[in-house]
Amino acid sequence: MKLRVGIIFGGFSREREVSFAGGRTVYDNLNKSFFEPIPIFVDSFGNFAILDWKYIYKGSIRDFYPPVKHLPSTPNGFQVYAESLNGVDPIKLLKEIGTPIKADELKTKIDFAFLCLHGAGGEDGSIQGFLEYYKIPYSGSGIFSSALGMNKAIQRRWMQDAGYDVPDFIIVKREDILHSSGIKKFYDAVKAGMGIPCVIKPANQGSSIGATVLTSDDYASFEKALLKSFFMRKLKATEWKSMNRKEQVIYIRDISDIREGIGFPMDMKSPGKQATIYHPEELLKKISLYFEKANDEILLEAHHGESEVLIESFLRGKEFSCIVVQDENNNPVALPPTEIRKGQELYDYRSKYLPGLSRKITPIDLPSEQIETIANECCKLFTNMHFDVYARIDGFITDEGKVFLNDPNTTSGMLPSSFFFHQAAEIGLNPSRFLTYIIHTSIRQRILSSMNNPDYSQLLSRLEDLMHDERNTSTRKKKVAVILGGYTSERHISVESGRNIYEKLSSSSQYEPFPVFLSGSDKEYSLYRIPVNILLKDNADDIREKIEHYSVHPFIKKIQRNAESITQKFAIGNSLMPPKKVSYAELAKEVDAVFIALHGRPGEDGTVQKELDKLGIPFNGSSSATSAITINKYNTNRLFEKNGLLVPKDFIVKKEDCLKETLSLFKTLEKQLGLPFIAKPIDDGCSSAVKKIHDIKEFDAYVKLVFRETEGKDAAASAILKIKPKEEFPIKAAFLTEELIRRKSATHMLEITGGLLTHATKKGKSYELFEASETLSEGDVLSLEEKFLAGEGQNITPARYAKNPIARQKISNIVKEELKKAAELLDIDGYARIDAFVRIYKNRKVEVVFIEVNSLPGMTPATCIFHQTAINGYTPFQFIDNILNYGFSKRKKYK
Asked: How many CB atoms lie within 10 A of CB 471?
């Protein structure tokens, strides 16, 4: 009988979105032959519920909780968590997304708790104590080590007393800064002691939330950084009054964010008064009203803020992270430590979780003896802090070779490319196998700490019997090559999509996938079959580099030997074979099908499809002819326009058009399209280089960037267009300009993205249109972060065409029919995603204005197409399975 594994995720900490995304990863990757995954969602108030599976695949907690119908009106488009619904009964909310469970009921629902909670309530020993009390075995470390690992202030003192190298530090308590001279006292102490630069961070947060690398030595910068770590902010009347209304809304949006700002509930303090505020609209109103009469300043502070802040001297050297695990003899084994390369900026939330913004080098680029020193120090700390099963230990090694361990974590992020899976892959464990190891070792550890609890021993025996049965059972599985990577600005997202497909298929009983990386250029490209440790590198550039310069580091060879007691029991097959260049002809002999997880060229333009068709290899998605049309937004628009579908006015700008001054061209575009207008690549997606152009200055900057001769980006042009560090901006020979879609006389307008699935019929095929998602953006256009970064952006599925459910459905059916017409015109196969704007008029007239068709839509873990398929009853795996089966039926290769 399978083990019921309760995956506990969400919570009330500022890291709840990383917890949610990690919980989804664990849910998907648990070996379905051994485990029955049960998603246990913890809400903003600490309540538990068994979550309906369809909500696991939402992009953000805010996409489903609080349920959309409970969200108050927000004219400024603010996105909120449940704590902003002051006074609403959370149990009633939970009943709409799952089954609430009481504390004493949990033991009857699950056999084992896999902890994916982060921060307060998850890593501080409290959930561990709760599970110990109810005698439920759980993953990872126990109560004491979790509490010690969480509080950086206590931890620093303990490490210092235990003889570890620690940077100079000062601990600041909240009460120390509340009097007038408090902050100045610490500023003077820092200047006189450790000096600046320094690092200021909260004592009880993770993911670099609330942290600042302070490089300016003025008092104002120090005060701002210290208040940020306490989740406070001072706002002067002059600052507020200098902003226009749009800037004030942006200020409120930023300060409301639980990662980079303060979050809610929030206390607004003015001389002699204090009010607790729960919603951004309320905050905007109260600040505006206050400064209509007052000319002083207010203090904004998180109602549940931070009690202590740590100020540390800035360490110069290499930053690393190291996962330490227990072997079968309960000895610590340090997996190969990873170097974090990110430039000069802080390794913040965005850098950690958005593909391509940082580089992870494994093992760290140092002589073997220094890597050995890091590993030994991490193992020593693992033992001394009484960690169990696994831990992630972060630190620095200075240019002089001194090791500083500055952040031991009892819970690691569990996104697909996290250190947790990234380093485990170096010893040959894919995510599914590593999770089995974690559960097995955790149960064994709970047996030891509970003095041989017979229930735990029986649970371990059940798991070992299941593992034994699997090793002695062989079944014929369909072999699928998953092609990912590429060379466009979308290559990192392609890797995320391909990894997700690989992991969904590898945890199933039907498929045996293997990853194939595509590398090269428009002129020539190659395919490489790659091992799991290269697949789980941080991004496409890391994967390409490892293929081109393949070698196995001596330290990794040593770790692989040290971990043999683990891999002999939990690894399957030769998962660490060297990368191998393969041809399409060689693939044809080896596979039953190919899943193309590429974005942009050469996957979405028909090039790869042509090669597969030559050899009769089944694949996902549309034909080469259809792909050649959909890759080009201008050609797609012309086809739609010719057949009566609505598209925006557009105009192609070629490089030769801009060889002279651009003012006359801009005037032409302004006359034809109006201001502002949209500029974007003709043949790229994923919000790459999509910008709203308001004036000639922005147009000149866009032209300068898109038509540049080298990869380096002009700093002035980047600043004008607000290009973020390491944001992709492709070089093109032409780009597309489009009119901005406006509401006109419609009563309601929204941006949507709608997915579809094709089914084989005797007459050919039929289309199943899903309920479209309403996409909400906080800026001018939907950003890369809002599409792919855990917890950013918001997608409402199904789209809110009308408040009345019957009226909403009627409009939805009209929209679906329009999307179906587009699919039929393009002869879409397999699946697709169509982006559009929908205008709704008083007389229920509906207009659908098409923006883009993706013949190979993104398949990252939280992409909104999975939200849509869930409504129709498809899990992500079932959706992928349907796509592959359609490919098999169309091309008849699989017998």
From this structure: 10
